[in-house]
């Protein structure tokens, strides 16, 4: 029941027509009791007891990275459908084992990846599909904010390799790698460098991963966990007929530049509601998109449909993560995914 759990609970509550929150679990008794009271559910301090609860059919795991694989595996072995916060698991081998187990048990396994539920990204995808920017030539992403408080806290899992397994590349990279695949297709090669600003942390807090997509364009993704700025995501797409700049901290968040003479750009419209432009919501866009993804997973399970973000997509992003780390270890050489 950590920081991200409120968005997951909101998503499950929003899908109340198909799902009911039966139980919540945390090792801290006071925390889990309050959460249980808030949503009208049973409280567990031992996840193994929750997994034998016959009313529990789906398990949602917003946990530190090191717990994703063992707890997802235990939940699948207990016959539960499973939603796992990204990354699906720290290694491609573990991801594959979870996928095979879910398939063997005829269970739904999904990843809580919020990208396809972000209104700005949906609007950009619609604009790309219209062909109005032409052939993409270069794509850049930047995920930034400050994790310094948790990275310097020796009691937090965030800066401990035993808890987070990897740093900025494993934590933030899956968002960008999924976004690139969702918009442009798979990555062919990567080159990566990483740095650690917070001395007491055991993992990288800044990184750059660049490379080429199988469809041709070059890309560059950047991650900073030491930027003293509100958390945000930026996407730049430079095409043969125009460009798109998206920044969640800027108003309007997304602009379409129609040519090299267009110095002002045109606000990109939101596809869900068809207003003039994507809503500027720097404090709420991430929470809302995470909740929407959780709601859609619940509806997918109830309707017998595939997960909205499939476990195979989670495996793909970890293959890119592993290639990036291999590049870092080899001094930034190009590595094929």
Overview of this protein structure:
The chain is an alpha/beta fold and about 325 residues long. The protein has 2 domains: about 5-115 and about 290-310, NAD(P)-binding Rossmann-like Domain (Rossmann fold), CATH 3.40.50.720; about 115-280 and about 320-330, Dihydrodipicolinate Reductase, domain 2 (2-Layer Sandwich). It is built from 11 helices and 14 strands. It has helices at about 5-15, 30-40, 45-50, 65-75, 90-105, 120-130, 150, 160-165, 170-185, 285-305, 310-330; strands at about 25, 40-45, 60, 80-85, 110, 135-145, 185-195, 205-215, 220-225, 230-240, 245, 255, 265, 335. The strands form 3 sheets. Strands 13-12-11-10-6-9-8-7-14 form a 9-stranded mixed beta sheet. A 3-stranded parallel beta sheet has the order 3-4-5, with helices on both faces. Strands 1-2 form a two-stranded parallel sheet. Helix 4 runs parallel beside helix 5 (about 90-105), helix 5 packs antiparallel against helix 11 (about 310-330) and helix 9 (about 170-185) packs across helix 11 (about 310-330). The protein is globular. It starts with a helix and ends with a strand. The mean pLDDT is about 95.
């Amino acid at each position: 029941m950590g920081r991200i759990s409120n968005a997951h609970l909101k998503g499950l509550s929003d899908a109340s027509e198909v799902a009911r929150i039966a139980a919540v679990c945390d090792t801290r008794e006071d925390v889990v009791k309050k959460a249980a009271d808030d949503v009208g559910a049973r409280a567990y301090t031992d996840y193994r007891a929750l997994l034998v609860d016959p009313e529990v059919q789906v398990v949602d795991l917003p946990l530190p990275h090191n717990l994703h694989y063992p707890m997802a595996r235990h939940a699948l072995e207990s016959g539960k459908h499973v939603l796992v916060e990204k990354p699906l698991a720290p290694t491609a081998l573990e991801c594959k084992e979870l996928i095979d187990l879910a398939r063997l048990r005829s269970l739904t396994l999904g990843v809580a990846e919020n990208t396809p539920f972000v209104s700005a990204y949906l609007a950009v995808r619609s604009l790309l599909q219209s062909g109005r920017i032409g052939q993409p030539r270069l794509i850049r992403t930047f995920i930034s904010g400050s994790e310094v408080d948790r990275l310097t806290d020796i009691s937090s899992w965030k800066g401990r390799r035993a808890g987070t397994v990897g740093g900025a590349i494993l934590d933030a990279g899956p968002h960008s790698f999924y976004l690139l695949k969702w918009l442009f297709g798979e990555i062919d090669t990567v080159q990566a460098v990483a740095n650690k600003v917070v001395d007491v942390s055991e993992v990288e807090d800044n990184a750059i991963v660049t490379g080429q997509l199988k469809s041709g364009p070059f890309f560059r993704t950047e991650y900073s966990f030491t930027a003293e700025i509100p958390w945000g995501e930026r996407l730049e797409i430079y095409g043969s007929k125009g460009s798109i700049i998206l920044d969640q901290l800027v108003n309007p968040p997304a602009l379409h530049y129609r040519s090299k003479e267009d110095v002002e750009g045109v606000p990109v419209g939101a596809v869900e509601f068809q207003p003039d432009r994507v809503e500027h919501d720097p404090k709420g866009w991430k929470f809302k998109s995470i909740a929407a993804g959780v709601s859609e997973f619940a509806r997918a399970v109830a309707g017998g449909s595939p997960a909205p973000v499939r476990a195979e997509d989670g495996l793909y992003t970890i293959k890119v993560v592993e290639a990036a780390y291999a590049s870092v270890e080899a001094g930034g050489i190009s590595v094929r995914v």
